[in-house]
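Subject: Sanity check before I submit

Could someone independently write out the C-alpha cells for this chain? I want to compare against mine line by line before I put it in a report. The sequence has 423 residues.
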Amino acid sequence: MKYFKWDDEFLRNTGLMVIGVGLFNLFNLLYHFFMVRALPPVEYGHLNSLMAVFMVVSVPASTVQTTVTKFVSSFYAQKRYDLIRNLIKHFLFLTSIIGIIIFLLIFLLSKYLASFLQISHSNLLILLGILLSFAMIIPIPWGGLQGLQKFISLTINLILNGGLKFIIGVCFIILGLGVFGALSAIIISYIVTIFISLIMLKAEISKGVAFVTKNKENLRKFNNSSLSEMYYYFLPIGITLLCFMMLTNIDLILVKHFFKPIEAGYYSIAQMVGKIILFLPIPVVMVMFPKINALEGQIEKKLPILNRSLYITLLFCFGAIVLVFIFPDFILKILTGKVYPECIPLVRLFSINMTIFSLILIILYYHLSTNKKGFLYPLIILALGQICAIIFFHRSLIEVLLSIGIIAFCLLIINFYLIYRRK
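---
Independent answer below. Compare away.
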C-alpha cells in the first residue's frame, strides 16, 4: 500500500482533466443528440458519414500529439525551452503543409468522394477538407500544453472546443443552414481553439525562454539528431495506437460479418455502452504521460505514478461496472431510448472487458514513456490473436466477448510482468 499515497497535485490535475474531457464529451453528445433530432434523416446521414471519415483520417493526429507531448515534457524537465519552441515551430509548419495537401486532395476529388458517399452536395466535402486541415494542426498546441503540464489551459481548450461546436451548431441550425451549418460549427470551434491554445502556449514558452537566456548553459541547438529521434518515435506510437484500436474495434466488423443483422445491432448497442468505460482512463493518461516522461531514467519515481494511475482508473471502472450490473435497463434507456433484453448480458461482459482494456491503455502509455520496445511484440501478437479467436470461436455473441476478455486478460498479465519483473 505504500504506493497508495495520493499526491495532491496529481489528483488535482487528474480532476481538472476529468472535468475537461467529461465536458468535452458531454458537449459532443449534446451536439449529436440535437443534430439527430433537428436534421432530416438524409442530412444527418451525410453528417455522420463525414464525421466517420474525419475520425479515420484524424487518427494520425493522435500519434503526432503523443510525440509532441513526450518530447516537450522531456525538454521541459531539462528546462530546454528553446528546444520546445523550435519543436513546436517545426511541427506546426509540417502539419500545416500536410493539412493543405489534404485539403487540396479532397477539393480535387470532392465530386468523386461525394458520389462514393452518396452525398448530393460536393461542397460538404470541401468543408470536410477545411476541417481536416485544422484537425492536423490542433494536436501541436494541445500536445505542447500537455507536455508543459499546463492542465488548466488544456482543460479550458477542451471545454471551449466542445462548447463552441454545440452552441454554434445549434445557432446555425436555427438559422436554417442545415448540415452545412452543423459542419461549419465544428470548423469554427477548431479555428478558435487553435488560436487560443497557440497564444497560451507561446506565453508559457516565452517565459521559459527568458529563463534559459539568463542561464546560457541550458541552451541547446535543435539539430537533425533531435528531429530523427522524434520521427523514429512515431513508429512505436503508431503501432501501439493501431493495435489498441484493433483490439477495441475490430470485433464490430467481424460480428457484422459472422452474425445476423439483428444480432450485430444488439452487439453494437452493447458496445456503445461499454465504450463509455474506455473513456474513463483518458484524463488519467493525459496527466500521467507528461509527468512520467519528465522523469526520464528515474524508474523508481515513475512506478509510484503508474500505480496511482492504475488505482484511479480501476476505481473509476469499478464504479461503472457496479452501475452496469445493477442498473443495466436504466443505462440502456438513457443512452439508446429503448431497453433491449438481449443487450443486458452483453453490456455486463463489455463493462468487464473495457475495464481490462482501460488498465492496458494506462500501461501502454507507460511503456511509451520508456525507450524499450519489447512490449510491442505481445501487443501485436495478441491483437492478431484476437482476430483469429473471433474467427474460430463465434457460436454466440457471448463466446465472442469471452474470447476478447481472455485475450485482454492475457495482455494485461504480460504487461504487468514486463513492468514489475525486476521489482
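---
OP: Matches mine. For the report I'm noting this point. The chain has two domains: 1-222, 224-423.
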